[in-house]
Amino acid sequence: MSRILVIAEHGNGKLNVSTAKCVSCATSLGGVVDVAVLASDAASVAAEAAALQGVSRVLTLERAENAEPLASIQAPQVAALAKGYTHLLGPSTTFGKDLMPRVAALLGVGQISDVMATEGSHRFVRPVYAGNALLTVEAPADAIVVATVRMASFQPAPAGGSAAVEAASVQVSLPGHTRFVSRTAAKSDRPDLQTARRVVSGGRALASAENFKLLFGLADALGAAVGASRAAVDAGYVPNEMQVGQTGKIIAPELYLALGISGAIQHLTGIKDARTIVAVNKDGEAPIFEVADIGLVGDLFQVVPELERLVRANRG
Length: 316
Known about the structure:
Blueprint: E1 3-7, E2 10-11, E3 14-15, H1 17-28, E4 32-39, H2 43-50, E5 57-62, H3 71-81, E6 87-91, H4 94-107, E7 111-115, E8 117-120, E9 123-128, E10 133-138, E11 145-149, E12 164-167, E13 198-202, H5 209-212, H6 214-222, E14 225-228, H7 230-234, E15 255-259, H8 265-271, E16 276-281, H9 288-291, E17 294-297, H10 300-315
Parallel strand pairs: 1-4, 1-6, 4-5, 5-12, 6-11, 7-11, 13-14, 13-15, 15-16, 16-17
Antiparallel strand pairs: 2-3, 8-9, 9-10
Helix pairs in contact: 3-4, 6-10
């Protein structure tokens, strides 16, 4: 029987929805699903994890060194916790992409990245070639499976569980070459880009960081997150954390508004699981229109203010 350990992603004392999606993937494998919470104070996060349906047990590993999610510090602890488990799963987010390869290396196995479907305990489907093809991979049956889970491919496990919470301890030597210095992050009341139901995204056509602010009003009216194409990020209009696409965030919102985005294949990789794509672009031949459910050929500087006005008027 499979014994699966999901490594929890969390911040500011709250469980990230990526963990609930990993639990959904884990339950599709069958067997026992546990969640590991590494933190300096794990109580509140562990309580949230214990409430997820499908979770059998939550293991807390509390150490002062776990106050910040440093992969080099957490990887040896996760590898030590792995004994007795057949699978280790982490989210295919910045957190998981940093941590899980280190864990796999410490365990002497290869990592399976971006699992989007399971076909058996050791057989998985993952995207390749920027999502244009799907690859079925099979892990060795006699080795532990270390994998990251593609967030856009799984729904979060619902609440309603009542798993036991247990303190765990491991005896490992932690490396001293990495230390936390400071954290700099943009603060916003808008939804998280990776988990938002609605996303308003802009491209190079906005032409400047000042013009990009045009999208913020529409996003606030829709209760949406704000994203950007790689071209907009590379041009310095917005920070890298807002990038959507193959080298940015892979998202699956219910509504995705692509404003002034041409539709390069790298960008389309990040939004192909969106339920409804609405595109606005002056170029009627832009590739984005090939995947858009609704397309409008027009000047975004005229369209966006009018959209915002209509949204606010209908809400009022």
